[in-house]
Specification:
CATH architecture of the largest domain in chain A: 2-Layer Sandwich
CATH architecture of the largest domain in chain B: 3-Layer(aba) Sandwich
CATH class of the largest domain in chain A: Alpha Beta
Shape of chain A: elongated
Oligomer: heterodimer
Shape of chain B: globular
Largest interface: A-B, 18 and 19 residues
Helix content of chain A: 25-40%
Low-confidence stretches of chain B: none
Strand content of chain B: 15-25%
Number of strands of chain A: 8
Radius of gyration of chain B: 22 Å
Strand order of the largest sheet of chain A: 1-4
Structural class of chain B: alpha/beta
CATH topology of the largest domain in chain B: Rossmann fold
Largest sheet of chain B: 6 strands, mixed
Number of helices of chain B: 14
Mean pLDDT of chain A: 88
Number of helices of chain A: 11
Low-confidence stretches of chain A: 287-294
Helix content of chain B: 25-40%
Chain lengths: ~290, ~475
């Protein structure tokens, strides 16, 4: 009886030892050599696995960052400069600080401004709606209002405003990962710098993407950019360009003086983080003005 | 009686306007001719603002291999060439705006009514005329006809699609009744180009008058003229979507078009009866494709307001609606095409194109979507799918974002006929989601093919 027990234990223990040895050698033979820095980098990542960096997840980003010769093309928008500094420290690279960014909705065609011409009764998805037709308003470029961006946002930073029928971005939650820009079939959401300087939150943008001619655009939506170019004329910094009947403000050049906001006849230019003050141009001497008129 | 084997549904055919004779629609003061009236690359306008054009004159040249000529449907002066909103409200395609004057036909066009039954023997002559006169498939897809009539290998079957399986539409039925001889001559011309395959004019059983008319005319032409052998009329059982190319091939020949293959691979060419009429006009009369037949119908229209019109391309739909007596109050949705596969008209100012087939007024009760409930896996959609797919599964896979499994389950074979949506007792928007899934998977397949091509070319360069 005792002998049976002893034998059993011995055999099991022997087998275990033997298999352990085999396992050890097999593991040695097929070992995958992985840079230990990948693990380290992954640890400092935010762990959202949102794909905002262009890779499948944080681990994939870490892998790519370790293999890349520098960090110029790898940037985690969610972690921002803080995380990137840590990553750079681990890998021994140097990075240039990037300005913090935020998602901006470039459509202000609210329900009042943009009357509905048809009633949409189909699946509540912008993608499906965009495949079917131009949209339930006269504007073929603007927000479709089914909230694909809301569904795409992993950080709960976007919600639909029931009054305007447009999405609104909560900038405290937005990480500028860009998921909403990809989800929007009309490409109305743009990732822009949060402010003119890394420290402030002053920003100005054109809240319209309509490329139709002025009259057509205006007819569809009273808030549409009509491409008149008044904003470009008033801008002292050359930040505004007009292309395809549409104005665009380059956020790298914009100093958020806010003068274009006043120049825009359709109130298509929107702002955030400050209250623009109109600088009245110095009145020209009376004689000069008379000359001009003549 | 024959029909296709898998799936299908039996909606009420509602052919209310079937006995309304074709009326010629007058031309308004202005027409807008679209440069994208066919599948493939849009045509390039070759006229300038201020030019005077004659009826039947070329105003657009093909923009690629799969493209077609566009002709002016009226005589007049070109007022503008600019993008104009289409049915869906998208403002992309250039339209040529012409201010209309009394008709003056371009040279070489035979506008007489005499029926020319002599079939030309020269294939290049026929194909040349078909191409030059901008003939496209009028069954719905508007695929350029000259491309389809020049298959790589000789087909065994030419099938003329007179099924008209979509409810409400009667334009094909009317032309089969009123232009019987022309359609059969057109069929004989196409048969000539294709090297004399067996030619079957397939008509659903709900159009017995058309079957009789066709049979009589085929017999008469066979007796009196040469070159009409091998043409037969085949009645088919009524079932939707029998007019689908792959379903029709299956119904007529018993053959299957395999997944990812074309009708040509099954030795078949399918053309609509309206296309046969256009081919007749193009080859025998040198008449470009500038007219087509359109049904104005709907349950909310009284009998006297149902119409079948012979329209010129480029006429705004709003003008047609107005001419036909205005939009009825009960109408909640206007559809261009049949109720199953047609497109909702978001912009009634859009113009008619070569493939326009109807202006269908539907009431709120007919069109409003019912609230969707959960899938109980009854399998009705799978029973109804004529392509043998499992719509409920594809719907789930799309929502899960599993493109790999979608491809394995052949979502790319979907013909968007809407049988699944029609048969679903839970009102689940199957078709909308499957269409999206199809777009996604097709994109992946195309990208893969492009990558493979690029890799093969790179390998070739390396070898050199």
């Amino acid at each position: 009886m005792t002998q049976t027990i002893i034998w059993t234990i011995a055999i099991i223990a022997g087998l275990g030892l033997l298999l352990a040895v085999i396992l050890y050698f097999v593991a040695e033979k097929f070992k995958v050599v992985e840079d230990p820095r990948i693990d380290e980098v992954e640890k400092v990542m935010p762990g959202a696995n949102c794909g905002g960096c262009g890779f499948a997840g944080c681990r994939a980003f870490a892998d790519a960052a370790v293999k890349a010769p520098n960090l110029d093309n790898n940037y985690c928008p969610v972690g921002g400069n803080e995380v990137m500094k840590k990553v750079a420290a681990i890998l021994g690279y140097e990075i240039a600080e990037k300005a913090p960014q935020v998602a901006v909705v470039r459509c202000n065609g609210s329900c009042e401004a943009r009357p509905r011409t048809t009633e949409y009764d189909g699946v509540k998805s912008c993608k499906v709606k965009a495949a079917l037709y131009a949209g339930d308003t006269g504007c073929a470029y603007g927000c479709l209002g089914c909230g694909d961006c809301v569904a795409a946002c992993q950080f709960g930073a976007i919600h639909m405003n029931p009054e305007t029928g447009l999405p609104e971005v909560d900038e405290t939650k937005c990480t500028a990962c860009g998921a909403c820009t990809k989800a929007c079939p009309k490409h109305i959401i743009e990732i822009r710098n949060k402010g003119t300087m890394p420290k402030n939150q002053r920003r100005v943008w054109v809240g319209c993407v309509n490329k139709d001619k002025g009259g057509v655009a205006r007819k569809a939506c009273t808030n549409a950019c009509i491409g008149c170019g008044k904003c470009a004329t008033v801008c002292k910094f050359g930040a505004i360009t007009i292309e395809n009947n549409l104005s665009y403000i380059d956020y790298n050049k914009c100093k958020a003086c806010g003068q274009c906001v006043f120049a825009c006849p359709t109130h298509a230019i929107q702002f955030s983080g400050f209250e623009p003050k109109q600088v009245t141009p110095k009145p020209a001497p009376a004689g000069e003005q008379a000359n001009k008129e003549a | 009686m024959k029909t296709f084997k898998i799936g299908g549904i039996h909606p009420n055919d509602s052919k209310i306007s079937r006995d309304c004779k074709i009326e010629v629609l007058p031309v308004p003061q202005k027409v807008f001719i679209s440069m994208a009236q066919h599948l493939g690359a849009p045509a390039k306008p070759i006229v300038a603002v201020g030019d005077r054009v004659k009826t039947g004159q070329v105003i657009g040249e093909p923009g690629g291999f799969i493209s077609a000529f566009v002709h002016s449907s009226v005589t007049g002066t070109v007022k503008s060439i600019a993008p104009r909103k289409d049915l869906a409200g998208n403002c992309v395609v250039p339209h040529v705006e012409i201010e209309v004057e009394p008709d003056e036909w371009a040279e070489g066009i035979d506008t007489s009514d005499t029926i020319v039954t002599e079939i030309p023997q020269d294939k290049d002559f026929i194909l040349g005329r078909v191409k030059a006169n901008g003939v496209v498939g009028l069954g719905g897809a508007t695929f350029p006809a000259h491309v389809k009539l020049a298959p790589a290998k000789q087909p065994d079957f030419l099938i003329l699609n007179g099924a008209e399986c979509e409810p409400y539409l009667t334009s094909d039925y009317r032309i089969m009744m009123e232009k019987t001889a022309q359609i059969i001559v057109g069929a004989a011309i196409m048969r000539q180009v294709l090297g004399g395959p067996r030619t079957v004019i397939a008509i659903e059983e709900n159009k017995p008058e058309a079957i009789d008319a066709m049979n009589n005319m085929v017999r008469m032409l066979k007796d009196n003229h040469g070159g009409y052998d091998g043409i037969e009329v085949m009645p088919l059982m009524k079932k939707y979507p029998q007019g689908g190319e792959k379903q029709l091939i299956n119904a007529v020949t018993g053959r299957e078009v395999l997944s990812g293959k074309l009708p040509a691979d099954a030795g078949c060419v399918v053309q609509n009866v309206a296309t046969a009429l256009a081919v007749y006009d193009a080859v025998q009369k040198n008449m470009p494709l500038i007219t087509n037949t359109l049904t104005v119908t709907g349950d909310c229209l009284p009998a006297e307001r149902q119409h079948n019109y012979l329209f010129r391309i480029g006429i705004p739909l709003s003008y047609i609606a107005e001419y036909a007596g205005g939009i009825p109050d009960e109408a909640a949705k206007i559809i261009s095409g049949g109720p199953m596969m047609g497109k909702a008209i978001a912009n009634l100012d859009a113009t008619t194109v070569k493939g326009s087939s109807s202006l269908l007024f539907l009431t709120d009760a007919q069109t409003r979507r019912k609230k969707a409930s959960n899938c109980i896996r009854c399998g009705r959609c799978a029973d109804a799918c004529p392509m043998g797919l499992e719509p409920f599964l594809l719907y789930r896979l799309y929502n899960a974002g599993n493109t790999e499994e979608l491809e394995n389950n052949a979502v790319q074979d979907c013909i968007s006929c809407g049988c699944c949506l029609y048969s679903c007792p839970a009102n689940i928007p199957l078709l909308d989601n499957i269409n999206m899934a199809k777009g996604q998977v097709m994109g992946i397949i195309r990208a893969r093919a492009a990558a493979a091509k690029a890799a093969a070319e790179a390998a070739k360069v390396e070898q050199k």
